[in-house]
Design brief:
Elements: E1 29-30, E2 35-43, E3 47-54, E4 59-66, H1 70-85, E5 95-101, E6 104-109, E7 112-115, H2 116-122, H3 129-148, E8 151-152, E9 161-164, H4 167-173, H5 177-185, H6 188-196, E10 200-202, E11 209-210, H7 227-231, H8 239-253, H9 265-279, H10 317-324, H11 330-339, H12 350-354
Length: 355
């Protein structure tokens, strides 16, 4: 485990200062005095999250204060609809409340800890197999439940999967966030036991949708975007499973499975090429020539061949893991290949993986 500079894990754990943000102060009371701000936990493009105290329920909560911008407000209101759909589930973020504070939508949830990206950093890009297996099982349980509610998460990625916290750990946040992570990582065995005994939580439903009210544009963060989304074929619940397959690779190696960064034509083409290289050209399904694949014409000719492309030399996933990374993880490689079936109609579901 790499403990050399735990402070780096918290470079984003500050409040935002642009004109659309609300910068709460420690000790400030919100929602008619019910919630007391303790400290900022982190900020992102849409919001800032604060550790707070619910003075009525006498518990710690996280309050996400969304930027006062129409687009972000609409996303937050959609997220609240999604969160209200869920009953309590061990592997889905618990929602408590929402309110408006000075024109900012505020969403109140349970407090959670580090995300999988931070976990990868703590383990210096090589998370132990027993921890990976535990995370996979819990994320699959969370996805099985989310999908049973007719919801597609649409943005499964390491930053949106977090480790639960004990009351003692939450209380230590109130004194020093940096001290908390240092304390947790001082002893490898203690930290490993903590992770193995914690609930893994799927969070951030700002991009989620009901299956009967799907987005028309592209979904998912680029590196975890499924084949069907790139070519514009209708996505399903199992689009989330593709993303989880990509995450497993990242937990094992510290690298992206598909190292693509931007959202332009060249990157779409390179993404498809990388998928084809990994899975084998013969395994790319006929949906690439389906009339429902509204973007496929940009990448394939009428016979389903990639434009301007010489013969693709495939390098299968198990070989990549064993030869490049010296990992003997055949069972995980087989699971990932089932999750990465480019035909969403044949891809394994969360329930399939758990059975």
């Amino acid at each position: 485990m790499n403990n050399s500079d735990s402070k780096e894990l918290f470079t984003n754990m500050t409040s935002s200062k642009d004109k659309f943000s609300y910068n709460a102060t420690n000790g400030e009371l919100l929602n008619d005095g019910r919630y007391k701000i303790i400290t900022a936990l982190g900020s992102g493009g849409f919001s800032t999250v604060y550790l707070s105290r619910d003075l009525i329920e006498n518990r710690y909560v996280a309050i996400k204060i969304v930027k006062n911008k129409k687009t972000y407000t609409m996303i937050a209101l959609d997220e609240i609809k999604i969160l209200k759909t869920f009953d309590k589930h061990d592997n889905v973020l618990k929602y408590y409340d929402n309110f408006i504070h000075k024109k900012h939508v505020c969403i109140v949830t349970e407090v959670v800890g580090i995300d999988l990206l931070q976990l990868i950093e703590i383990y210096d890009n090589h998370v132990p197999i027993n921890i990976i297996n535990n995370i996979i099982k819990q994320v699959l349980k969370g996805l099985e439940y989310i999908h049973s509610c007719n919801i597609v998460h649409c943005d499964i990625k390491p930053e949106n999967i977090l480790i639960g916290l004990t009351l003692e750990e939450i209380e230590s946040f109130g004194h020093s966030i940096e001290n908390n992570i240092t304390m947790l990582t001082q002893d490898d065995q203690v930290f490993e036991e903590k992770i193995l005994n914690s609930n893994v939580k799927i969070c951030d439903f700002g991009n989620s949708c009901f299956i009967n009210n799907k987005y028309s544009g592209k979904i998912q963060t680029r590196q975890y975007r499924s084949y069907e989304v790139i070519i514009g074929y209708p996505f399903t619940f199992n689009t989330d499973i593709w993303s989880l397959g990509c995450i497993i690779f990242e937990l094992l190696t510290g690298d992206y499975l598909f190292e693509i960064y931007n959202d332009n034509y060249d990157d779409d083409f390179n993404h498809i090429y990388s998928i084809t290289e990994l899975l084998g050209e013969e395994n790319i399904p006929d949906i690439k020539t389906d009339v429902l694949s509204i973007y496929a014409y940009k990448f394939y000719d009428k016979d389903g061949k990639l434009y301007n492309m010489k013969k693709i030399k495939s390098w299968n996933l198990e070989a990549v893991l064993s030869q490049k990374y010296k990992l003997n993880v055949k069972e995980l490689a087989d699971l990932m290949m089932r999750m990465l079936n480019p035909n969403p109609n044949l891809r394994v579901s969360a329930s399939d993986c758990l059975s």
